[in-house]
Specification:
The protein is an alpha/beta fold. The protein is built from 13 helices and 15 strands. 28% of the residues lie in helices and 25% in strands. Helix 1 packs antiparallel against helix 2, helix 1 crosses helix 3 and helix 7 packs across helix 8.
Length: 388
């Protein structure tokens, strides 16, 4: 099962947006245009479907309530609608639609999200058609989606499992290198990678060792002085660590843990681990951060190689980026890119035009075609302190 397209209404930056999702989809746009908010719709659905206890109420609470989810440009229609179309080989498409609204009682902070519509069609056959009116006899049932209930999603559990399998990476290396000093609570769903080492530790031993060997091969190119990446636990506390040999003039190479790895090295390790870990939808925010441009240039090829063939290790991937090094790669076509254009009525999504495809066929790269259109206006005004 693959996610084919998404339609959003009144979601964060977007009054209305519809976009396709291919194997590799790249988001480009100015700062604050809504790239992270667009990705968050998939994290929101994941939080609803979490097997260890999520649900609509918790997913909304994690985002500070409906007031922070509803598009601020939505003047008339207060409801949020999320619609997803899935495709399977040689099968009719399946769809899931969720419409939610505020309860309308009490303060804004305490208003609960309620389901006003929930629909499921599997391979052309209607499985669920649920409205607030159809369940008016027991309004409390509207505080939960059927998607999050094992006894209610039996006929469309594959959709729930797809959302539950969504993965997200935006690693902040300092949260690992200074873990002892911070020693704080890891935020729910670990949005900044504090629990990355716990993920590595949780993998079966043979799987973990296989992945670390493959990552070590890449590190020998990206950071030649680092060799033999391995996993270990502190003998006293049991804390998980990554360890690598640091080659230098000494005949016996010394060892270092992740505490002494560079930011770029840690981010690269985390990216490679996520690319090797599972085949669900992967959300990758700005993978170019902290990395040498020449390494960044080959990220699309790594993704492509893991996705191709009958034994593909990587499922769909959605990437936000500002990097010309990534988008210079000829494996990326204009149809793989979604451009976000902020305006007075929220952000609009722009797909490739015939002119964009024509330029691509004339040997322009996607970076040359798309990035100039994604630049913020009036950047020439930025040196505002020049005469200060």
């Amino acid at each position: 099962m693959k996610l084919k397209s998404v339609t959003l209404k009144n979601w964060r930056n977007f009054r209305q947006a519809e976009f396709p999702l291919s194997d590799r989809t790249f988001l480009v746009g100015p700062n604050a245009s809504g790239k992270s908010n667009l990705m968050d719709v998939f994290r929101f659905m994941r939080d609803i479907c979490k097997a260890d206890g999520g649900g609509l109420q918790q997913a909304t609470k994690l985002r500070d309530g409906m007031g922070h989810l509803r598009c601020m440009w939505a003047r008339r229609n207060p409801e949020i609608e999320l619609s997803f179309t899935f495709s399977e080989p040689d099968q009719l498409d399946s769809t899931y639609v969720l419409q939610i609204k505020s309860e309308g009682k009490g303060t804004k902070e305490k208003q609960r999200p309620l389901v006003s519509r929930e629909e499921v069609t599997i391979r052309g056959k209607e499985i669920l058609s649920r409205t607030a009116e159809s369940e008016s006899g027991d309004p409390e049932t509207l505080t939960q989606t059927h998607l999050e209930q094992a006894n209610a999603n039996r006929d469309f559990r594959s959709i729930s499992e797809y959302f539950a399998g969504v993965r997200y990476l935006h690693l902040v290396p300092q949260l690992l290198t200074h873990a002892d000093e911070i020693s704080g609570k890891i935020l729910e769903n670990d949005p900044y990678g504090q629990g990355f080492l716990a993920q590595v530790a949780a993998a079966p031993k043979n799987t973990r060792e296989f992945r670390l060997r493959r990552i070590s091969t890449a590190l020998r190119v990206a950071a030649p002085q680092m060799q033999n990446l391995s996993f270990m636990r502190d003998k006293i506390s049991g804390t998980p660590h990554l360890e690598a040999q640091l080659v230098n003039w000494r005949p016996n190479a010394s060892k270092q843990t992740e505490r002494h790895f560079s930011d770029g090295t840690l981010r690269l390790i985390a990216i490679l681990w996520c690319l090797l870990d599972g085949n669900g939808l992967l959300l990758l925010e700005e993978p170019e951060l902290s990395l040498n441009e020449e390494i960044v240039r080959y990220i699309p090829e790594m993704i492509y190689n893991l996705q191709k063939g009958s034994k593909a290790r990587l499922g769909q991937i959605l990437i936000s980026t500002h990097s010309s090094a990534i988008l210079d790669n000829k494996l990326i076509t204009p149809d793989d890119v979604i451009r976000l254009q902020p305006g007075n009525n929220g952000t609009e999504l722009r797909l490739a035009t015939p002119r964009d495809r024509e330029k691509y066929n004339m040997e322009y790269t996607v970076a040359e075609i798309m990035l100039p259109q994604a630049r913020p206006d009036n950047c020439s005004d930025l040196p505002l302190f020049a005469n200060g």
